Amino acid sequence: MDIVIDKLRNKKFRFSIYDQDESPIDLTGSTAYFVIKTTKGEGRKVIIKSTDGDDMTIEGVNDNICVVTFVPEDTRNITPKSYRYELVLEIPEGGVSEWYTGVRAGFEVKDVLYNIVEE
Is 64 exposed, middle or buried (0-12, 13-18, 19+ CB in 10 A)? Predict the structure, then answer.
C-alpha cells in the first residue's frame, strides 16, 4: 500500500496484521518499526518510528493493529519526493525474537502550498 502525506501535517496510518490464514496476530509484547528510506533495500533511513516510543501504538480487539502517527516535525527537514517504507515486526516466540517485514511500498511526501490572504 503506497502512502502519500503532505509535508508539515498531522496524519495517522493503521496497519492490520494477519497471518497466512487471515487470523489476527496478537502483537502483545512485540515491537513494530516503521522505517522510511531514500531507496529500496539498504537506502539511507530518513524517518524511524517504533512502538518503543510515542510514534506508534498497537491497538484493536485482537491487539493486531499498528497505528503510526506523524506530526509536522517529522517531515519538517525532509525534501518532498518519493521514498520507500517498510513495516517491520519483532515478535517474541519461545524466548527468541523473530523479525518479519510486513509491508514494503512507496511513501511520498508532498509539498504544501500556503495561500495567505491579507484581510
Answer: buried
